[in-house]
Amino acid sequence: MNSYRATEMQVIQWAQDRQIIPNSTPMAQAIKTKEEVGELFDALMTKDHAALRDAYGDILVTLIIGAALADVDLVDCLNDAYNEIKDRKGHLNAAGIFVKETALDQMVPNAKETP
């Protein structure tokens, strides 16, 4: 199995070989990403595992090509995003909403439970 970086470079080479890079645009790839996200929703709704894998893969391909066209390193973007969230504290509530822990929550345990 290839590393992410090696596969990313294969996708970029594939796009160059087909003139997607440089003839497409970041906006065109963003539109394609949006279409692929729609397919992801369809796969989730139908619980189609093969379609789910295909959709996630296609989304990654469009993101890789769009980032290359925008001269943005996707791994750097991922690292930046992780560094932004890594120290966040909180939890996912029953409604599926992530509730961030605030400084007040840290100073006053169970503050939200007090009347």
Helices, strands, pairings?
Elements: H1 4-17, H2 20-23, H3 26-46, H4 49-69, H5 74-85, E1 90-92, E2 98-100, H6 103-107
Antiparallel strand pairs: 1-2
Helix pairs in contact: 1-4, 3-4
Unreliable runs, pLDDT <50, ≥5 residues?
none
Task: Quickly count the helices.
Answer: 6
CATH structural class of the largest domain = Mainly Alpha
Radius of gyration: 19 Å
Structural description of this entry:
- 67% of the residues lie in helices and 5% in strands.
- Strand 1 (90-92) and strand 2 form a beta hairpin.
- It is mainly alpha-helical.
- It has a two-stranded antiparallel sheet with strand order 1-2.
- The chain is extended, with a radius of gyration of 19 Å.
- It folds into 2 domains: 1-72, Helix Hairpins, CATH 1.10.287; 75-115, no CATH class.
- The termini are far apart.
- It has 6 helices and 2 strands; from the N terminus they run αααααββα.
- The mean pLDDT is 91.
Brief overview, please?
The protein has six helices and two strands. The protein has helices at residues 4-17, 20-23, 26-46, 49-69, 74-85, 103-107; strands at 90-92, 98-100.
